[in-house]
UniProtKB/TrEMBL annotation:
Domain 6-phosphogluconate dehydrogenase NADP-binding: 8-167
Family, per entry: Belongs to the HIBADH-related family.
Keyword field: NAD, Oxidoreductase
Organism from which the protein derives: Aureimonas frigidaquae
Highest taxon listed in the record's lineage: Bacteria
Active site positions, chain numbering: 176
Keyword Cell membrane among UniProt keywords: no
Domain 3-hydroxyisobutyrate dehydrogenase-like NAD-binding: 170-290
Protein name per Swiss-Prot or TrEMBL: 2-hydroxy-3-oxopropionate reductase
């Protein structure tokens, strides 16, 4: 599988991340067949050169590789194992790459079932957000069969720059959930620093610039800090998706009897945000929890704040 023209790719899930990743595959020269339950998303990819599929059942038979980029575990299970799912249509030797963030245990169970039909399943979740998806600079952490991973490495290279096989099936999801733990706890630390600095009358833009130059620097502060300071809760990695990741992380930790006190605490903050109607807002809206706790808000915050 070295030549782009000999690898036929199916792509299922053309949302915030998937549409950019699929576009990068088309632009890299791969033959891509695309499907999403939202017809407009399929039309948009078709306009860029992908073949539109009418359903999941229309994807598997003609594909060497099928990539899934779906919200949560049940969506991936439906596409892979449901009626007309990939397990029924893909050929032995073909490869599913699930790039969603889902349960490591469910991933292992699916990979085992698929293996009995000769289909490989790699878990290859990503970090880097919509910007990383757009610029094909995602960090991709993969679990599963080493030979299958080597075969699809060129495909992954069209979507990301840091591409690492971290172990057997489920290991990619495990590492991704550890990544999310760091992101969530880090974001909460930034919220607390911004809330305290604001209450003390510090210039937050200047404080952010100073922190970025020292040991408190982070991706979250760099990429999300400006929106937090401006009170912009708009699009991005949704609060609802982060809550899903924190739930998966805590489930995994409980199964291993590992206490995660900081992760548990930040989960309650995200739940507070969702209870105030912030579920569809970007991750940075976690700072609005601190607006509510302190009775203060960003100068430019929109009036739509609940
Ligand atoms: P999204 O909700 O924007 O996109 C998901 C897409 O899947 C939607 O277009 C939806 O219509 C489609 N879909 C749902 N069920 C389907 C089905 N049965 N068949 C076909 N299509 C279906 O989500 P997203 O932000 O693109 O995230 C996708 C995954 O990537 C999630 O697991 C998320 O946690 C992970 N992720 C997201 C980000 C981010 O910043 N948004 C970053 C890294 C990882």
């Amino acid at each position: 599988m070295n030549e782009k023209d000999t690898i036929r790719i199916g792509f299922v899930g053309l949302g915030t991340m998937g549409r950019e990743m699929a576009r990068n595959l088309v632009e890299a020269g791969y033959a891509v067949t695309a499907y999403d339950i939202a017809p407009a998303a399929v039309d948009a990819l078709a306009a860029l050169g992908a073949r539109p599929a009418a359903g999941v059942a229309d994807i598997g038979a003609g594909a060497d590789v099928v990539i899934t980029m779906l919200p949560d575990t049940p969506h991936v299970e439906e596409v892979v194992l449901g009626a007309g799912g990939l397990i029924e249509t893909m050929r032995p030797g073909s490869i599913i790459i699930d790039m969603s963030t889902i349960s490591p245990a469910a991933t292992r169970a699916m990979a085992e079932r698929l293996a009995s039909t000769g289909i490989f399943m790699l878990d290859a979740p990503v970090s880097g957000g919509p910007i990383g998806a757009k610029t094909a600079t995602l960090s991709i952490m993969a679990g599963g069969d080493a030979d299958a991973f080597a075969r699809v490495r060129p495909v992954l290279s069209a979507m990301g720059t840091t591409i690492t096989r971290v172990g057997e099936s489920g290991a990619g999801q495990t590492v991704k959930l550890c990544n999310q733990l760091v992101c969530g706890v880090n974001l909460q630390a930034i919220c607390e620093a911004l809330a305290l600095g604001r209450a003390c009358g510090v210039d937050l833009d200047q404080m952010r610039a100073v922190l970025l130059g020292g040991s408190a620097s982070s991706w979250m502060l760099d990429k999300l800090g400006p929106a937090m300071i401006a009170g912009d809760a708009g699009a991005g990695f949704r609060i609802d998706l982060m809550l899903k990741d924190l739930r998966l992380t805590l489930d995994m930790a409980q199964a291993q009897s590992v206490p995660l006190p900081a992760t548990s605490l930040v989960t309650t903050q995200y739940l507070e945000a969702r209870a105030h109607g912030e579920g569809a807002n970007g991750n940075q809206a976690l700072f609005r929890v601190y607006d509510r706790m302190t009775g203060q808000r960003a100068a430019g915050a929109s009036d739509s704040q609940p």
